[in-house]
Each structure stands twice: as C-alpha cells, then as structure tokens.
Amino acid sequence: MQVTKLNLAERSYDIVVGKGVITFLGGYIKKLELGDSAYVITNSALRKRYGLRLERLLQQAGLEVKFRLIPDSEKSKSFSQLITAIEDISNFDKNRRVFILAFGGGVIGDLAGFVAAVYKRGISYVQVPTTLLAQVDSAIGGKTAVDLAQGKNLAGAFYQPRLVLSDVRLLRSLKPREMRSGLAEVIKYALIKDKELFNYLEKNYPAVLRKDYSVLQHIISRSSWIKAAVVSRDEQETRNLRTLLNFGHTIAHALENALGYRGLTHGEAVALGMLVACGISVRLAKLKSRDAARIEGLISKVGLPVKISGLSLAKVIQAHYHDKKFIGAENRFVLLRGIGKAEVVSNVALKVIREALKERIIV
Ligand SMILES: NC(=O)c1ccc[n+]([C@@H]2O[C@H](COP(=O)([O-])OP(=O)(O)OC[C@H]3O[C@@H](n4cnc5c(N)ncnc54)[C@H](O)[C@@H]3O)[C@@H](O)[C@H]2O)c1
Ligand SMILES: [Zn+2]
Fold this sequence. Notes:
binds zinc ion; seven-stranded mixed β-sheet; 20% strand; alpha/beta; binds nicotinamide-adenine-dinucleotide
C-alpha cells in the first residue's frame, strides 16, 4: 500500500493506493470523524458487484448506509441528477451526520463531489474510484461538475474530498478498453513530468493490461503523486501549473466535441490529442522526432489509436476554438520539450496546428 498526501493546509487529505485497501475505509471514516451515515452514490452494476461488501464494511464501522443509484452514462452528470440527489439526501439526513461516498468512475465522482459541494453549502465526501481513469485523475484534485447542453463540465465547483481510496482490486472487472483509456492519462503524467515512469511503462505495459496488481499500484501511486504535487501548488489553475495536466486535452476536447461525444473514449481522444501536441512540438523544434516516435510507439503498443477516420479537419479546427483554455483570441497549448518536460505555449500558428492534425486524420 502507498499513501500520498495532497497538501492544502487544513484541507489536506490522503490518497491511499493498494490491493485490498477498501478494508481500511471504516477506520479512515472514524478517524476523520466524517459522520455517522454514509450516502453512497454509485450505479446498479457496481452495486451488484461490490455493494454487499461495501455495505458490510460501512456497517461494521457502525455507519448507517443508503445507496443512491444513478444511470450508467455521461448523461448522469446533469442538473436533474444533482437536484434529485440533493433532495434525496436531505430526506435521509434527518437527525444524522451524513457524508457522501462516491463509488464509481469519473461520472459518479464528478457528480457526487458537486452534490457534496452544494448540499448545506458543503458536506464531507470520500472518493472510492473504480476506474483506472478515476484512480489516476478525476478522483484527485477537487474538480467537481455537471454538464450543460452548451458543453461539458460547465457548472461545477472546486471542492476537495476528505480521502481518496484507490483499491486496485476494484479494477478486476474493468473492461480492457476502459483500462487503456485510463492508461492514456498515466502516459500523460509520464510525458509532462516523469521520464522514469515513461521508461517503466514501455517495459511494463503488458503487465498493466493484464492487471498485475503491484504494477498497477506503482503507476497509480506515481500518477497520484504527480497530480497531488501539481494541485497542492495550483489548486484553482491560476498559475499555469495545473494547466500542464491538460497536455493533449485541447485537441482531445475538440475531437470529442466534433464527434458529439460518441465513438471515442476520453482516453482515446487524449492519446490522439497528445500525438497532435507532439507533432506541434516537433514542428516548433522543441521535441526531437526520435522522442515523438518513441511516444507514438508506446501509445500504439498499448492499443490506443494513433489515427482517426470519419472526421473533417475543418470541424475539429472549428471545435478547438471553444476550448476553455483559450484566453481571448489567443490559443494556449501544452507542448513537450522532451519526454518528462512540458511547457505552456501561447499563440501557436493555425498552420502548424492544422499540419499536426492532418497527420492524425485519415480522409
Ligand atoms: N474531475 C476531474 O478532474 C476529471 C478528470 C478527468 C475526467 N473527468 C470526468 O470523468 C468522466 C470519465 O470518467 P471514467 O472514464 O471513469 O468514465 P465512467 O465513470 O463513465 O466509467 C466508465 C465505465 O466503466 C464502468 N465501471 C466503473 N468502474 C468499474 C469497475 N470497477 N468494473 C467494471 N466497470 C466499471 C462504468 O459503469 C462505466 O460504464 C468524464 O465525465 C470526465 O469529464 C473528471
Ligand atoms: Zn483527461
């Protein structure tokens, strides 16, 4: 087991990663004095598979438990789910001290975190992420949100959990495509901050894909450590540091948007976005072609896409103008100066973006 502390003064919390760490849940809840009643937000498949065990663990710690099941879809990150959950929790809350437990992937984590942020102006919540993507990324750092028709994550809050408990055994039921999607974010951390992790992934990716628990523990705790270090220095993305975590995401969001959020998983879009960012970096003479080829090699070996068809270049270019990272008319890209070295660059010429994109789109 490995524990990383995310340092934010009195809002600091532990990120616990390992095999079987879910058994420590009750002990942590008591130690942190989170309350006497757990309002668990999850979906029916996860409840069926893990709910009984989770309920027992919580009851053994003397807690009352209520499950709230939400449909398994990005569509659940909605105002209507938010409001129904708030009303439901307030009915459950009578004479209790209730806290929220998010048990699921990023969809559940983002929604549950936002419910916790707004109910009674903020109650405690715990993240127990069950996808690789949520364990390495979305459960950490306190970005909570729901989607609007106008775009993803447009209504939300920065609101930190009190604990993140990532049990690698929960990943045993995760589909291979979802494993690869999470792996794209791990590759992202390696590329922006950690060359050793990149070397490790090149050597150990087959073990990741067959879910070797000790290899998973290593890459999840390394990723958690990097994200915690960045968030503790730039919690609300005001200093360009947290922006680095957006490597690959400007183009990823444009691809997802141009496809109407169908067809590609988020990690697949990030893989393509990282390759476009590498293409831009090479064209601006920041990154060596040899390193770019190594990066493409890893992305392709783990089974993530390196090219995409059925999309028009114009549509992607149009969609990339809506990126939240745009400031006024200036674009901002995270680019690489080498494996493990990233920087934020403003005002990249459209011609360069277009050429790098063209390389990835099959017409
Ligand atoms: N808050 C942040 O900082 C942040 C960062 C990145 C992504 N996100 C958000 O995260 C969401 C994507 O998260 P995700 O990729 O985890 O998707 P998800 O939550 O939709 O989960 C993917 C699928 O895996 C299933 N699943 C979850 N755990 C499982 C398990 N243990 N075994 C079997 N199946 C399981 C889910 O039911 C779902 O069908 C997006 O909404 C994105 O905006 C947020
Ligand atoms: Zn991402």
